[in-house]
C-alpha cells in the first residue's frame, strides 16, 4: 500500500475528513500524527488507530492553530523529530467556517480567527516542517481547497477568502519547490462531503445525499502513490481525481 510505514501529519484529525483519513491510513500501516485542539477527541481517535504493525507508532499533538506562532511551530517540529526520522506528508485538513455573513457585517475578530486557522497556520507549519519532509523519499504537502475558492460567493466571507489564499499558497509552494525539492505539492477540493462543517453551512441539506469522508480515502491514497509523482498539475477536484485514483 502507498502509505505503509509512512509518517503522515493530519491537522484537524479529531473529526470529519481528518479523522477518517487517520483511521483508514493507520489500517494500511501508516504512522499517524494527530493534530487538533481538543485533547479528549484526539485521545478517542488515538485509541481507535490501528497498531497491528510491529514498527507502527502514532503521536498526538494538541495545538490551537488560531494561536500558532513560529515558536510553537518549532515545538511541534521538535516533538515530531524526537519520534520520527522524517515526515512523508502533511495533510492540511483543519479549517473553521466562521460566520455566514455579508462582508460589511462581518465581525473582525471572527475574520482574524478564520484567517489564522485556515491560512496562516498552514503557511507556518509548512515552512517549519519542510526540513522533515525533505528527509522522505516521496514527500507530499497536501492543502485542502473548496468550491468557494474558485469564484467569489456572497456571504462566505472569511472562509472563502482563506481558501482563495490557500490556492495561492499551494501554487507558490509548488512553483518554488518544483526544481529544488522532492516535495510534491497538491491542492485538493474534496467537494460536497458529509461533515459537521457542511451541515453548519447548509442546515437544510439532507446529509444522506452526500458522500462520506471515507469515500475520499482512495483520492488521498493516490496523492501518496508513485503515480502522483508524474502529475503535471497540483490542483484536483474530487470528481476528477476519484476517476484517476480508482483507475486500474
TrEMBL record:
<dbReference type="InterPro" id="IPR036291">
    <property type="entry name" value="NAD(P)-bd_dom_sf"/>
</dbReference>
<dbReference type="InterPro" id="IPR020904">
    <property type="entry name" value="Sc_DH/Rdtase_CS"/>
</dbReference>
<dbReference type="InterPro" id="IPR002347">
    <property type="entry name" value="SDR_fam"/>
</dbReference>
<comment type="similarity">
    <text>Belongs to the short-chain dehydrogenases/reductases (SDR) family.</text>
</comment>
<keyword id="KW-0560">Oxidoreductase</keyword>
<dbReference type="Pfam" id="PF00106">
    <property type="entry name" value="adh_short"/>
</dbReference>
<dbReference type="GO" id="GO:0016491">
    <property type="term" value="F:oxidoreductase activity"/>
</dbReference>
<protein>
    <submittedName>
        <fullName>Polyketide synthase</fullName>
    </submittedName>
</protein>
Amino acid at each position: 500500500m502507498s502509505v505503509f510505514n509512512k509518517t503522515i501529519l493530519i491537522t484537524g484529525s479529531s473529526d470529519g475528513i481528518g479523522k477518517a483519513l487517520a483511521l483508514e491510513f493507520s489500517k494500511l500501516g501508516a504512522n499517524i500524527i494527530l493534530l487538533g485542539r481538543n485533547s479528549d477527541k484526539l485521545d478517542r481517535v488515538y485509541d481507535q488507530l490501528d497498531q497491528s504493525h510491529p514498527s507502527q507508532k502514532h503521536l498526538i499533538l494538541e495545538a490551537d492553530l488560531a494561536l500558532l506562532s513560529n515558536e510553537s511551530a518549532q515545538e511541534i517540529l521538535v516533538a515530531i523529530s524526537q519520534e520520527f526520522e522524517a515526515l512523508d506528508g502533511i495533510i492540511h485538513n483543519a479549517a473553521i467556517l466562521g460566520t455566514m455573513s455579508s462582508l460589511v457585517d462581518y465581525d473582525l475578530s471572527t475574520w482574524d480567527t478564520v484567517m489564522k486557522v485556515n491560512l496562516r497556520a498552514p503557511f507556518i507549519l509548512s515552512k517549519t516542517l519542510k526540513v522533515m519532509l525533505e528527509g522522505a523519499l516521496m514527500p507530499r504537502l497536501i492543502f485542502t481547497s473548496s468550491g468557494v475558492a474558485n469564484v467569489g460567493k456572497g456571504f462566505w466571507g472569511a472562509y472563502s477568502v482563506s481558501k482563495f489564499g490557500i490556492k495561492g499558497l499551494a501554487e507558490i509552494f509548488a512553483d518554488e519547490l518544483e526544481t529544488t525539492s522532492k516535495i510534491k505539492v497538491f491542492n485538493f477540493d474534496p467537494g460536497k462531503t458529509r461533515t459537521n462543517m457542511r451541515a453548519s453551512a447548509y442546515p437544510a441539506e439532507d446529509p444522506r445525499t452526500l458522500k462520506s469522508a471515507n469515500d475520499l480515502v482512495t483520492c488521498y491514497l493516490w496523492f501518496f502513490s508513485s503515480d502522483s509523482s508524474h502529475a503535471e498539475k497540483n490542483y484536483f477536484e474530487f470528481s476528477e481525481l476519484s476517476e484517476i485514483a480508482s483507475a486500474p
